[in-house]
Amino acid sequence: MTATDTSVKSGSRGDASGSAPNGRAMMQLVERLYPICRSITGDGVRRTLDILGEELDLRVREVPTGTRVLDWEIPREWNIREAHVTGPAGERIVDFRDHNLHVLNYSVPVRRRVARDELVAHLHSLPDQPDVIPYRTSYYREAWGFCIQHRRLEALPRGDYDVVIDTSLEPGALTLAECVVPGRSEREILFSTHICHPSMCNDNLSGIAVQAALFEWLRREQRRYTYRAIFAPGTIGAVTWLSMNRRSLDRIAGGLVLSGLGDPGRLTYKCSRREGARIDRVVERALGDEVNQLPFSPLGYDERQYGSPGFDLPVGRLSRTPYGTYPQYHTSADDLLFISAAQLESALAACQRIVEALEGDTVWYATKPYGEPQLGRYGLYDELAGEIEGTPLREALLWVLNLADGDHGLLDIAARSGCAVAALEHVARRAVAAGLLETEVAGA
Ligand code: ZN
User: What pLDDT shows up at residue 10?
Assistant: First the structure.
């Protein structure tokens, strides 16, 4: 395990003037990260985290190959030096140096001469999009291959080809990182993004850039909640983090997976598995018509892991155009021109509004949640005989006591009960004083 202390900041971000200064800073980060060949393990992930560590206090973790994590096992570490195919006339057919999507990610090493037909069996292309390179992986099945524009594949002449894939698959580690911004409460809001894709911008350098900028903003002032960012390889990284933290997941009050936030489409919010958890209601209140809402499904990004039935964490997903529904998805066309500073900027602003909505709404916990408390013993029955703004105070008290389950904020209780906010706040203050309610933060 290594720790990186990067508390000294270069301060280049946010200095640009104009309408989208945060967006342009995020684009600059994307441009730096774009050329790196990432995978679920290896030096591409480490270089990516080194760059993020220039701006954020990251705690980097290395989990050794062979470690059991839930139902998975950390695979051998993959690294690549070069890969290319040379044609019958000595011409370079495809070269990793031109684009790192050209290599099947996690290819085993190969150095051999093959006939055209055998080569073609190892080539991946998109006949419907003949000018782009597809993104393909083979993490858990040993294979070698190249990804190529279909137009070039069709033009390959008969003859023999020299194939070189200089990769290593050796015992090593899986690398992931966390950034924690402590709040007044130990209750946490989780943000998570995957960092395993090579040169593609929307999926998912956009998620990395927005999450990094969000945490740079969060650390500027202390807030009610503690905020935790997870930068981890997709699936196996989230599984690893959950495996390492399964005894402390109770502290998570809600969260969001961030991915695909730079494309030209509208924002999309995919509900948590609970569909109606506080995070789902808060996002709806904070973003309103700005966001298309999708129900939960067990397909997608790492919300699948956080929302697996044993954990059932209230973690939704913020994206733009849903993955797989735009032609640039998982191809070389998901490049620097496909995303924009303005879209990154507005995605960051949406995350900030969600944070402010979470922070601005008090959540209570009942100290006696088993049966109604005997209100007369606390002096609450007689004292709360009146009403505020038309809401009988006894009714307001019963609502607050019932929904003081940690998953309902004041505004949720008001919406569900129809009680006036002022009445709910009044009775909640009395119930806190009587010891029947607690908030996340003592004295809040
Ligand atoms: Zn992807």
Answer: 36
For the domain that residue 273 is a member of, what is the CATH number?
A: 3.40.630.10
Nearest Cα to 438, choosing from 354, 374, 363? 363
Other C-beta atoms closer than 10 Å to the C-beta of 24 total 21
The pLDDT of residue 13 is: 38
Query: Which distant-in-sequence residues (6+ apart) come within 8 Å of 123 by Cβ?
Result: 145, 146, 147, 148, 153
pLDDT, position 18 = 55
* CB-CB neighbours of 244 under 10 Å: 15
pLDDT tens per residue, range 360-397: 999 999 999 999 999 999 989 888 889 999 999 999 99
60: nearest Cα among 68, 51, 69: 51
Phi, psi of 82 (to 5 degrees): -155, 165
- Parallel, antiparallel or unpaired: strands 267-270 and 226-232: unpaired
Rounded to the nearest whole angstrom, what is the distance from the C-alpha of residue 303 to the centroid of ligand 1?
13
Q: Which domain holds residue 137?
A: 77-170
**166 has which bridge partners?**
82
User: How many A from CA of 330 to the centre of ligand 1?
Assistant: 6
What is the pLDDT at residue 295?
Answer: 96
- Enumerate residue ranges in the chain where pLDDT < 70: 1-18, 441-444
CA–CA gap between residue 338 and residue 201 (Å, rounded): 7
385 Cβ contact partners less than 8 Å away, ≥ 6 residues apart: 393, 394
Q: Are residues 124 and 193 in the same domain?
A: no
Give the model's pLDDT for residue 444.
Answer: 45
| Cα of 406 from ligand 1 centre, angstroms | 33
Distance CA 237, CA 226 (A): 21
- Give the domain CATH number at 111: 3.50.30.90
CA of 93 to the centre of ligand 1 (A): 26
- In one-letter notation, the amino acid at residue 419 is C
Q: Which residues pair with 318 in a beta bridge?
A: 258, 269
The label of the residue with tokens 């733009």 reads 320
Residues 6+ apart with CB under 8 A from 121: none
